[in-house]
Amino acid sequence: MKIKFFWPVFITAFLIEITLTSIPLVLLMLLNLFVLEKKDWIFFVAFFSGIIFDVLSLRTIGITSIFLITLLFLVSLYERKFETSNIYFILTMSFVSSAIYSEIFYRFSIMQSLLSGFLGGIIFLFFSLLINRKSSSNYAKKKYNIKAYFKKI
Amino acid sequence: MQNRGKYLLVFVVLFLISLLLFSLSKVGILKLNFMSGIFAPIQKEIHNSFIQLSKLGSNSETESLKEENRMLTKKIIDQRKLTEQNKALLDQFQQVSPKSLNLLPADVIGSPGFVPGVSVPELLILNKGFSDGVREGNAVVLKNNLIGKVIKTSQGTALVYLASNNYLSFAAKVGEDKKAVGVIRGQGGGEMILDNVLLSETLKVGDVVLTNGDIDQNGKGLPPDLVVGKITSVDKNPSALFQKADVVSFVDFSKLSNLFVQIQK
Fold this sequence. Notes:
Chain A is an all-alpha fold.
């Protein structure tokens, strides 16, 4: 895995979402993970986290999994035509997906969707900082060198 | 191209499994209740620490005044109840005591859909489930204030719709003589309206709204005389069939941590 400390961050986000908030933290984490890692096992993570989420939030089991894996599949389709590993894609996708998510599971809130979009961007930058440079490709090294990017600014 | 095929295969397989689980869960065959028991203590701790944090910034004087207001409202309701009971006794009516309702203490372990500062909670998850005697339809209260209604239960947890949830509606009564009967409909965002009240009835701002009671033969439903809230504005249009009023609860739904479920024994 390219991203260091992903699992502790993911589990913490999962517990926070299940207990406190309707901001889809798990969705944002998975979206960012998929965009940065591009691996098929992320579908399994989405599937199992969706199932556990449904059980704990007393939803019909399977509904969150369906949503999450469909979202990841849509992102994978986008990958064919566009470069998805950039913050603009993450901001847009986080906003749109969390808007649909809140409409399906809670109630649509523009404020919450904007907040989710913003949070998705922050998670992207955070994960980019945590990228394990030894295991990542040259492209990723260049692309996610956030420190150098800020220095340039 | 290879990646796309790989994703497609994984997606199709997982999608079909999810669909199967969804169907089984929908018809009630699949229940993974044991998992909620494992996570309940962790959820409770996280929720409680968050509640403590949110209380740090609040004004203690305002909070104590609100608490006092709740106490006084409770006293007024109790007083009215006593007066009515005395009247009934004086009239030598036999008071048939209702089936005793038992209060089961429960902790809030989650409030999905709640973003602090952005939204108000619509749902709560309690750490008591059907193994503790909680059943769908039970009322959830705090003192004599109605908080919500149990909608779904699992072995160790229960899902509660708050009174302001827009999927919840129930009969309510207003006024000192409790003649004005209507329907409370949650509007979401902590708001409720009292609808379907006859134009001939008088609604006043500040009137306390109580549950009318809709307990069925199985003991499910809301008991009578629980405080729903008070009327903040009245919309009475002579050309309309009914009048309606905005109702606000005495309880701050965003700061709930310990509640009681009225279970039938």
